[in-house]
Amino acid sequence: MLTSKLDLEKLNIEFEARKPQEIVAWAAREFSGRLAMTSSFGPESGVLLHLVSRADPHIPVLFLETGYHFPETLKYKEDLAKLFGLKKVIELRADPAKKNELVVKHAGVPYEKDPDACCYLNKVEPMDAALKNYGAWMSGIRRHQTDFRKSIRIVEEYEGGLYKISPLANFTSRDAWWYLKEHNIPQHPLFEKGYLSIGCWPCTRPIQAGDDERSGRWAGKSKKECGLHTFFKEVQPTIKDKDQKEKDSDISMDI
Ligand code: SF4
Question: Closest ligand 1 atom to the C-alpha of 123?
Fold first, then answer.
């Protein structure tokens, strides 16, 4: 069944006061059979994976297998999938020929010579192709993670008819930590070693106490996003939507 056009203005006002589990349950109903979530199986991924497994463990979980993950992440992925009874964890990969071309061009280290191209090939392109099979994409991003993310809305519409849902938009790191503890969910094994945000090993460093939690990603570079959350073009919000988005942003910055 196709989802009728959603009233995003109304939904987003309502969802600001809702718990993440209520938003996930709504998404599972509204986009039944056409909803996927993405996960990096990082330190806070257990929260959304747990919520989704409770709503419907058949919801596909898309994982970008870049070939550059820490072995601990791959093991954590297997462990959580088993623990939560996830029925469909799908690995997405770059086109092998294009990948080989980029690796050769950059002498085996594309992540050092051209991280934007590396992320585009290994993350954005496979995700863009995969999302064509779905009507909505659920992500665990949170407003206080990066400047770009400060202005996300809980439900957004993208060109091509894709909706993106961020049930944890208002979560803090502390909320995530408590959620994992409360539900007895194991933490990523590298978390205790100072890795608060974890992506591919060439672009992830442990951080010191007091550092920004994402400062270990692409450390020493101006790059802050892999491109997954900036690539898709949002359908232009109405003037009223824009006003609300600015208000949402102000609220998140006050927290
Ligand atoms: S995070 Fe680094 S290694 Fe992973 S795809 Fe991006 S540039 Fe390449």
Answer: 5
